[in-house]
Amino acid sequence: MKVPDRVQAGVQAVSFAFPQISVAQVVLIVVLAAALFTRFWRLDVPGEFIFDEVYFPKTAQEILHGDPHAWDFYGHENTHPPLSKLFMAGGMLFFGENAWGWRFFGALAGVGSVVFMYLLAKKLFDSEVAGLAGASLLTLDGLAFAQSRIATPDTYVLFFVLGAVYFLVSDRWLLSGVFFGAGAACKWIAAFTMIPIVLYLMWRLIRGIAEREPDARLKPVEGVLLVGAVFAVAGVVLAAAGSLLAGGFSSGAEIGGIPFAIAAVIFLAGLIGILLSEDLRKTARGRLYLELAVV
Length: 295
Description:
Strand content: under 5%
Distance between the termini: 68 Å
Mean pLDDT: 78
Shape: flat
Structural class: mainly alpha
Number of helices: 14
């Protein structure tokens, strides 16, 4: 072998192929870079409390200092659950009691919301274009932009609700339940996400029954679960209507409480039927119902 041939063979031996990057991936990187820039650039300006930051980060500071009065209802921000304020306290623990500290995790949640919007739109429409469009629109949305740069619970709620819905339609029930609970633990308004969640699960149940073989009979336990789903939807609708008409989430919960209680009893009966039946436990649908119960 001639020397030039040996050199060429050696170069080929040590050469490597660069990973192929599609146009969609380039666009996604640009969108995420824009989201990061717009959420974090000059995040500490202004350096004092603005708007509702006079309530939330101030109470978060008290939590950080271990002040027991931070949990008092009057004179402190406890009209909403505490998870967002705990995030703010954690930010101040890492970055100091300054604007970066109380705004950092909120800005990070704003970027995470763009990621979940991309994943959710891509999943629902089975389209990369839809995912990129959704992420781009949320990045440029004025309300999402403003909320991501101030320390209030709203950006956390958006992040957790989008995550709950994405994991729901991706059949990752446990993660969906965790994100739903985290959203409600930041602000009560996130609890209204139960309306589309219950409707979606009922649709999944009805579709699964409709797609069975024509000669396959509806098992009694599935009929029980379907009736329970109807009562659950009724409870959600009544709770939402009560909240709007009676002027409060607690009032709505009282109105929808009876259908919810009936649904819980019916679902419990159906789940007991699955647990007692070895054949049902082995089926994909039986495992699905048990996973939903865990969530």
